[in-house]
């Protein structure tokens, strides 16, 4: 086995090694059990509660939780818009970067509040340090919101019959201070020791080997990169994201960042097992997610390490794989590995250019975002999976001759309506968005020529990718797309907003409604949801709903490209 | 279950259903089924395209091709309508055979004159009877409508309803006071009060449910319809957005191809069969001679967690039987048996008869001068016979012990032991004495129905807990419960005990079913999630329950649970099958859409279908003919196997999930080989 592949396996093993105890720890936080960090964090949390006038023990119903979530998001949306539109004259702007245009500021703010981090700008020239810090704050807020919402759903699943689902603000604060902050600190320190900048000074001037002078952008990079990865945000400090050597200097930092991408999403699955005291269920969920993940990971790696047959025909050796758009310090396999992690988790940071991937790599990264729950984004990944569980429970419950029930609660018309709407939303946003763009382009290719660096199938993939990435709240891009235009800024902005909040509201509503229902004890006629059979059923539902509805679109993009190339 | 032998497709029913298939094309009725409604819209669009191509439009393929697509879609609709129509026709035929019993019959109505009832009888048609009217029936009369006996007792032939030829006794003021229209009075005269207006009886309600007039979707059906509508919406999005995608890629796609893709992807198979499955469920209940008041009740039956069963008649054969003679020490066997037989000569109870049966002696063979029979009374709690100077008594242990000890005779310790032993085994001991001397003990035992414990085993595997309700003492109850294999029992049960048990189980979130007939049972029947009243029961019981069993068979509950489970399973498996079919259909149609413009996509044509046209036609044809192929399954229901939920899911997932993926690949390929000759 090549060392590249061993590196990938070691990375995954390390993730698992850390995710299991972390999951237990997060579970304890959601359960309000004592942890050894309490003494350090209780006073800190108290400061926030005092400042906000919050009673962290006041129990909330599911609607109150959603109101709290939306309030936090709305307030900070306004503050961010203000900063991005005025950063030219605001402090902390040593490089004198300009303010953003209205549509770009809208897109950027939306992109960060929704945990997407789709960036239609380059950080080093498009943002002041105040702008970067505002966005970094958002990387914490949106991630903690995701975790808090996940905590609400777990609590709802745990309780037998209740409308009291914990306190949103305390879930939120605990997630931010006791999980995100400490881990980010450790990750940032490792990055700093490997050479990532962490300063408020402006650009530095260096003399290159050629003897020329060059300006190098700096800033609070290490802190930014740490939360961008751990919070499944993915927005880079620099335009090229983690392909840039400042953000990701070497193979060690690559491993640290790669692990950070998927650590909390996996840990949350184990937290589910801890909170519900149903470890088998957690392992079933983990098993389904991992199966899907591997089914995407393996073709991506084979595709990228296999190289480009068109180049091979020209006599260019492809033994190192398809290296176009990749960093030599990572190589084809580690780049393909990262690409799968980042698209499966709705992270969206990149260490290679996805636009330059082989058609197979393009297909799998798209599929990872279309499914959006093979681990998925922080908190919301499980929420997406929850919808598929509900659908699978419904169909398989009927198949065993009982009114479908999940964890002792009957699934009825109202829950089905919500689940179906959420399941529909993702294909709707992606396909309708891409359809609109395709329609505009097809109607007048000259006028929109600046959109697509490559017309044809690849150009279609670029548009499809942009909407998929927005709707999955992923944020990575097929960067051949000229996306800083009013159309793309507004269209993807709307998609990101809808794709963030509706898939949170839906599962929280379902979990809340189910929690209030009468508890039906299990009998031997009850469908067990923690078995491989049921896991397979969930996988089949995901495959049919999420993957198959994109089949025609994928055919015209990466699949057509694939068959044309090979 | 007298009609269960009828074939699925009787010619006259098929004819009727065929006609209905066309009538049901009316969009106003089809709109209730969102999946099939979109197919109807698609069919209409194809009709327009046919006209358009016929008038010379180009770029949409030949007229013949478009027309064939139109025809197939029309047939898809007709097949779906046929499925519903045949299910309705079968249900209606079943109901009609029951309704035949209640054709116009003359009724002897009692007209109140003045302030008092005088028996002035008028002959009126049965349809003019109203609730509260009173009529009389004499031997040979057909009872004109449902009612409750308010005076008298009669033997009645109910074979028209139950198929059971033995006459039954119905009398005023008990739990067996109900009479059903269409049944025949064999002896005696009864006065009956009408309980329902014409057209409002349970049977009429059931017929309306089957016919669709008042059929409401059950909660589960609604949820499934939402799921199917959701899938339909997904594929509307997929197909509509494909147009601009194709424009971008410069791939011309005909309207026929879009419509075909859409119709193939939406779950038409389950959409077309959904209402047929629901009707067939009620029909199966009706075939089991159970009248349900709503489709929901059948569905709920599938979810039942706890089943309350009366001991007598359900678990044990109605009556106790003598099984053993236990001798007292120093008594000759023949003496004891003779005394036991003699004491039972005048005993008309089944228990008494069974003693004579067990003894195997004809009582007439004994020479008894001037016998004097002593009847059983509540005070003496014994019965017997006196002749000459002989006094023979048979009775309960303590009553006889009293009698013996009063006479100054010793009560043998061995007999006391025996009595305890018999009671401990669930039996009833009867002590026999001759001239206040104990001869021995007759052991009476409940006879547990053969095969009943296997049925309980089956229920246990379904996850249903069985509870035996009995008036017996806890010791006897426990013994019988163990022997029959029920999970729990309520001993010395009073009506309110049933009610409390049901409430306690429901508080734990369980669904409870019970069967009952008496007015005492009415509150419990109403409280239970599924309450099955016996047709012979009182009107109150029938009103309180949500099903009525025409056969008065207490084991019917078990069948009802299976019917409910079958109903849900049939829906689930056909949904899975329908959705799994999409994989193959995608692989048939998607390459066909693009292959002309993008020849490289030949690689996706894994079935190697002949041409784009033949591929599309094959997929649509498969999509249409799978519906009639599955109608028998929809009507009969998927067989329920009590093998545990996970094993059942695995099994159904294997058959209908994996089968649903593979079958269309084969089917479409075969059809393509045939269609490929023409297109």
TrEMBL record, chain A:
GO terms of molecular function: P-type potassium transmembrane transporter activity; potassium ion binding
Membrane topology, as annotated: Multi-pass membrane protein
InterPro entries reported for this sequence: KdpA (IPR004623)
Keyword annotations: Cell membrane, Ion transport, Membrane, Potassium, Potassium transport, Transmembrane, Transmembrane helix, Transport
Record GO cellular component, one term: plasma membrane
Chief localisation class: membrane
Transmembrane spans: 6-26, 66-85, 136-156, 168-193, 255-276, 281-301, 374-400, 421-442, 486-515, 536-560
Domain of life: Bacteria
Subcellular location field: Cell membrane
Similarity field: Belongs to the KdpA family.
NCBIfam families: kdpA
Function statement: Part of the high-affinity ATP-driven potassium transport (or Kdp) system, which catalyzes the hydrolysis of ATP coupled with the electrogenic transport of potassium into the cytoplasm. This subunit binds the extracellular potassium ions and delivers the ions to the membrane domain of KdpB through an intramembrane tunnel.
Quaternary assembly: The system is composed of three essential subunits: KdpA, KdpB and KdpC.
Stated name of the protein: Potassium-transporting ATPase potassium-binding subunit
Biological source species: Flavobacterium akiainvivens
Name of the gene encoding the protein in the UniProt record: kdpA
TrEMBL record, chain B:
This enzyme's EC code(s): 7.2.2.6
Record's keyword terms, sorted: ATP-binding, Cell membrane, Ion transport, Magnesium, Membrane, Metal-binding, Nucleotide-binding, Phosphoprotein, Potassium, Potassium transport, Translocase, Transmembrane, Transmembrane helix, Transport
GO cellular component: plasma membrane
Source taxon at top rank: Bacteria
Ligand binding (ATP): 347, 351, 376-383, 394
Domain P-type ATPase A, chain residue ranges per copy: 120-211
Keyword field contains Cell membrane: yes
Name listed for the protein in its UniProt record: Potassium-transporting ATPase ATP-binding subunit
Protein's organism: Flavobacterium akiainvivens
